[in-house]
Amino acid sequence: MGDDRLDSIQHVLDHPRRRAVVRYLDEKYLPIPVPSFTTYLALRLFPGAEVDDFETYREEVAESLSRDHLPKLDEAGVVDYDPDVADGIIDRGPEFDRAVEFVDAESRTA
Questions:
Q1: What is the pLDDT of residues 23-46, one digit of tens each?
Q2: The pTM is what?
Q3: Cα(67)–Cα(34) distance, integer angstroms
């Protein structure tokens, strides 16, 4: 893989929410429907959320995923994101394993 592709993956993973998406997708069976992953991610990101507040957090996660993070991860080849199937489907992209390696390496040095 050329340096440009690696730079693209590193750039897209500069955002902590995108690193969390890759980290937590790696723990799930893929493909996964976006609503299911949204709930899972919200639970992981906001473990202490009160029941009354959780839906607000879940909606924030859903919006940030669909409008920003999943399209950018898809563009970089990290995930395959198809928003047009049902409520959206996420699967591994051709660069998913490389992104996981990057996230794992970064978490070991942090």
A1: 999 988 899 999 999 999 999 999
A2: 0.89
A3: 12
